[in-house]
Amino acid sequence: MNYIEPLFRPPSEWKSLILQVTNGCSWNRCSFCDMYTAPQKRFRAQKLDKIEADIMSVANSGRSVHRMFLADGDAMSLPFDRLEAICLLIREHLPEVTRISSYCLPRNLRNKSAEQLSRLRELGLSLLYIGCESGDDEVLKRIEKGETFESSLAALKKIKRAGIKSSVMILNGLGGTELSQQHAINSAKLMNAAQPEYLSTLVVTLPLGSERMDASFDGRFQLPDQHGLFVEMHTLLTHLKLNKTVFRSDHASNYLVLKGNLGKDKQRLLAEVEQAMTQPHSSGLRLEWQRGL
């Protein structure tokens, strides 16, 4: 298939076939995100006949496909009728597909009912990656996310009612040193209210520079240092009260790899963070060059 690059996917979708149903991000204002700023990534929806041709090319290749990821960053911005048509095409021509997934902004679901999402679930859409980034309204306002604690929670609850699993992303360090504690506490509060099936944390990175974030933080965004990131993570874990959530903090941006299930592994994860805070040289932390993206 011919993709409009750069193309992004969640790390856990490495075995999935990527079907590009949109290009870019319809919001594309978040001051921390440089993923879709290239000139060729201006947002637009792919035409249905192009999507069908891509699906048919895979079907005709004889390749066995079991997982499909709908790209780009905003596939769920498509109207329900278009998403239903795409899922029906996948089911018709690639019947071995058992899981369809996509990134999803909370705002994408404001004009979709839980019943419509349930219909998409019936057709195979079983996992949505929700970039909540933070549960703190001040942080969300600063980064121009266009969401609030309540709008994120409403979307996560609607997803759960539809029987679709959610994988939520929180960005460690997104509040800078200034808002670190409230970012962690309110992000935990959001997760406690939503009880997602999956939760992952990444460290905010600014590969193209901090100019946009600086403007959002009164002239200078100061990312917490390594120890400060561990303190923030410890605060987040301390306040999390999750019943059955798979937790991962193993993205390349993280210094400390954490994996477990919350809540049964909470104390172990806290102990690992505490060791990294007090004995960083014996904690197997990633070196800076290992965090390159």
Overall description:
By secondary structure, this protein is α/β, with parallel strands linked by helices. It has one domain (11-291): tm_1862 like domain (pyruvate-formate lyase- activating enzyme, Alpha-Beta Horseshoe). Helices cover 35% and strands 18% of the residues. The chain contains nine helices and ten strands. The protein has an eight-stranded mixed beta sheet with strand order 1-4-5-6-7-8-9-10. Strand 5 (99-104), helix 3 (114-122) and strand 6 form a beta-alpha-beta unit. Helix 2 (80-93) packs parallel to helix 3 and helix 8 runs antiparallel to helix 9 (266-278). The longest helix has 15 residues, at 180-194. It is globular.
Give a short overview.
The protein has 293 residues and is α/β, with parallel strands linked by helices. 35% of the residues lie in helices and 18% in strands.
Percent range for β-strand residues: 15-25%
Q: In terms of per-residue confidence, which ranges show pLDDT below 50 for 5 or more consecutive residues?
A: none
Number of helices: 9
CATH fold topology? pyruvate-formate lyase- activating enzyme
> What's the alpha carbon Rg, rounded to whole Å?
19 Å
Morphology = globular
- First and last CA, distance: 25 Å
Trace the largest sheet across and list its strands.
1-4-5-6-7-8-9-10
Overall strand count: 10
Largest sheet: 8 strands, mixed
Instruction: State the CATH superfamily name.
Output: tm_1862 like domain
Q: What CATH first level would be assigned?
A: Alpha Beta
CATH-defined architecture = Alpha-Beta Horseshoe
Write down the secondary-structure element order. EEEHEHEHEHHEHEHHEEH
- Structural class call reads alpha/beta
Helix content: 25-40%
What is the residue-mean pLDDT, rounded to a whole number? 94
Can you tell me the number of structural domains? Answer: 1
